[in-house]
């Protein structure tokens, strides 16, 4: 399949202001400087030492711990880092003056003719992105991986010349697109998440995810979970131009992917790939779906079937996503710190095959815990709360399990779990919440868990 042809005008004369001096901000600054923009990076917080050094190396003007509004309002174009809300006062001010505010993904896509694969969803997008990249790389393609994972897309466009990019895209990144058009879009699933950023309106969040299809044409493809009621409902009510390729665990699919009689079957026009599901290295129904999505992308890009099968059999998964850490006294410790919402934790609990001591908690994003009640009743013997405010968890599960313990540190949580777990049990860290009350991010939380387990 040939590289995507871009018709984006590469307007490189002008002043680009960048809000946020992290990975996406500094990556955009490097690309913009290379393309002839006058660049100014502004961050309300402190800019990390590594990023400061990069800005200095490329002679890019920057400021930290403030936004010089008068200067920023002179910009021809503004790139906003995904962590900054759409309705931040400065963003509203810029838009009020007619200054376009875009995402790094939108900016970087203007300077590459590579074929773009965009992957979004509430859960599974990191695994699916890494899975897809793994297969395409094994298939001999010159492929980069960016977005929410690894180095920024903009920095890679500035410094490498990949023919394909696999991009993990959050709803925040998609909110800032205008012309961005992935040739292949994947939506893994849509469940309530980040509703604090969408005025607690689920429909707004759904629309944000579907922005990935906004500029697609009849020549493009949308791969999606046909078992997801939210996706199915939206597609019935709205028209998209791209060709639909669903995947399903529940029904047979004529063009797309499904599982029947413990076999994965992917059909694209007259080409069919089959593979026993027992050969998949990653366990769980959700990972079977991730594998179907990634393999469908690979089929579209004409990767050899044998390469796809081998890749699906060898892929090792993602750190902090149902990651087996250690077995101590015949108790398995599992790190699922990346489960920052209820749906991700649902998948984790569903895949547990033994009595489970569940470590849960953090910053609640307006979670609806009722979806977990049946699984908690079936599988969880004790709950360890790990957060500053555990009230929502205590209220939701107080009547489900006999033992609920509150903790304020990972070390304490793991020690409590060690006391409560018996031979044959599992200790599962799957927080269903953001991490910012006690940890820097979910990676920090997961690494502290692994360290605490190793210190037992």
From TrEMBL:
<keyword id="KW-0573">Peptidoglycan synthesis</keyword>
<keyword id="KW-0436">Ligase</keyword>
<dbReference type="Pfam" id="PF08245">
    <property type="entry name" value="Mur_ligase_M"/>
</dbReference>
<keyword id="KW-0132">Cell division</keyword>
<dbReference type="InterPro" id="IPR004101">
    <property type="entry name" value="Mur_ligase_C"/>
</dbReference>
<keyword id="KW-0067">ATP-binding</keyword>
<dbReference type="InterPro" id="IPR036615">
    <property type="entry name" value="Mur_ligase_C_dom_sf"/>
</dbReference>
<feature type="domain" description="Mur ligase C-terminal">
    <location>
        <begin position="320"/>
        <end position="433"/>
    </location>
</feature>
<keyword id="KW-0963">Cytoplasm</keyword>
<protein>
    <recommendedName>
        <fullName>UDP-N-acetylmuramoylalanine--D-glutamate ligase</fullName>
        <ecNumber>6.3.2.9</ecNumber>
    </recommendedName>
</protein>
<dbReference type="InterPro" id="IPR005762">
    <property type="entry name" value="MurD"/>
</dbReference>
<keyword id="KW-0133">Cell shape</keyword>
<feature type="binding site">
    <location>
        <begin position="121"/>
        <end position="127"/>
    </location>
    <ligand>
        <name>ATP</name>
    </ligand>
</feature>
<dbReference type="Pfam" id="PF21377">
    <property type="entry name" value="MurD_N"/>
</dbReference>
<dbReference type="GO" id="GO:0008764">
    <property type="term" value="F:UDP-N-acetylmuramoylalanine-D-glutamate ligase activity"/>
</dbReference>
<keyword id="KW-0961">Cell wall biogenesis/degradation</keyword>
<dbReference type="InterPro" id="IPR036565">
    <property type="entry name" value="Mur-like_cat_sf"/>
</dbReference>
<comment type="pathway">
    <text>Cell wall biogenesis; peptidoglycan biosynthesis.</text>
</comment>
<feature type="domain" description="Mur ligase central">
    <location>
        <begin position="119"/>
        <end position="298"/>
    </location>
</feature>
<dbReference type="Pfam" id="PF02875">
    <property type="entry name" value="Mur_ligase_C"/>
</dbReference>
<keyword id="KW-0131">Cell cycle</keyword>
<keyword id="KW-0547">Nucleotide-binding</keyword>
<comment type="function">
    <text>Cell wall formation. Catalyzes the addition of glutamate to the nucleotide precursor UDP-N-acetylmuramoyl-L-alanine (UMA).</text>
</comment>
<dbReference type="InterPro" id="IPR013221">
    <property type="entry name" value="Mur_ligase_cen"/>
</dbReference>
<comment type="similarity">
    <text>Belongs to the MurCDEF family.</text>
</comment>
């Amino acid at each position: 399949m040939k590289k995507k042809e871009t018709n984006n005008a590469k307007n490189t004369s002008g002043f680009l202001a960048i809000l946020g001096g992290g990975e996406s901000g500094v990556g955009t600054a490097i690309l913009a400087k290379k393309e002839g923009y006058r660049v100014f990076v502004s961050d309300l917080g402190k800019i990390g030492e590594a990023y400061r050094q990069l800005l200095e190396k490329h002679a890019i003007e920057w400021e930290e711990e403030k936004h010089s509004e008068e200067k920023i309002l002179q910009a021809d174009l503004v790139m906003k880092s995904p962590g900054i809300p759409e309705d931040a006062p400065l963003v509203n001010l810029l838009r009020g003056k007619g200054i376009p505010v875009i995402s790094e993904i939108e900016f970087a896509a203007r300077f590459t003719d590579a074929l773009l694969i965009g992957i979004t969803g509430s859960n599974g997008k990191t695994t699916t992105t890494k899975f897809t990249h793994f297969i395409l790389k094994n298939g001999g393609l010159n492929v980069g991986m960016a977005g929410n994972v690894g180095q920024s897309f903009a920095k890679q466009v500035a410094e490498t010349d990949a023919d394909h990019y696999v991009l993990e895209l959050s709803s925040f990144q998609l909110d800032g697109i205008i012309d961005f058009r992935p040739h292949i879009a994947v939506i893994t699933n849509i469940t309530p998440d980040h509703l604090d950023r969408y005025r607690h309106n689920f429909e707004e969040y759904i629309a944000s995810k579907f922005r990935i299809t906004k500029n697609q044409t009849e020549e493009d493809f949308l791969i999606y979970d046909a078992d997801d009621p939210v996706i199915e409902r939206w597609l019935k009510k709205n028209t998209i131009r791209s060709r639909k390729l669903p995947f399903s665990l529940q029904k047979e699919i004529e063009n797309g992917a499904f599982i029947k009689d413990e076999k994965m079957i992917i059909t694209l026009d007259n080409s069919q790939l089959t593979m026993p599901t027992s050969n998949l290295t990653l366990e769980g129904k959700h990972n079977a779906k991730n594998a179907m999505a990634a393999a469908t992308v690979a089929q579209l890009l004409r990767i050899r079937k044998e390469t796809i099968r081998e890749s699906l059999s060898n892929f090792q998964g993602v750190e902090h996503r149902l990651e087996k850490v250690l077995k101590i006294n015949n108790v398995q410790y599992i790190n699922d710190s990346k489960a920052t919402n209820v749906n991700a934790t649902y998948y984790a609990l569903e895949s547990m095959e033994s009595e489970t001591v569940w470590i849960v908690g953090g910053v609640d994003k307006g979670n609806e815990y009722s979806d977990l009640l049946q699984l908690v009743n079936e599988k969880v013997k004790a709950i360890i709360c790990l957060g500053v405010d555990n009230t929502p968890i205590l209220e939701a599960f107080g009547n489900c399990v006999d033992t609920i313990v509150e903790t304020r540190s990972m070390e304490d949580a793991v020690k409590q779990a060690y006391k409560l777990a018996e031979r044959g049990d599992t200790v599962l860290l799957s927080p269903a919440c953001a991490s910012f009350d006690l940890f820097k991010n979910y990676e920090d939380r997961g690494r502290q868990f692994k360290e605490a387990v190793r210190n037992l």
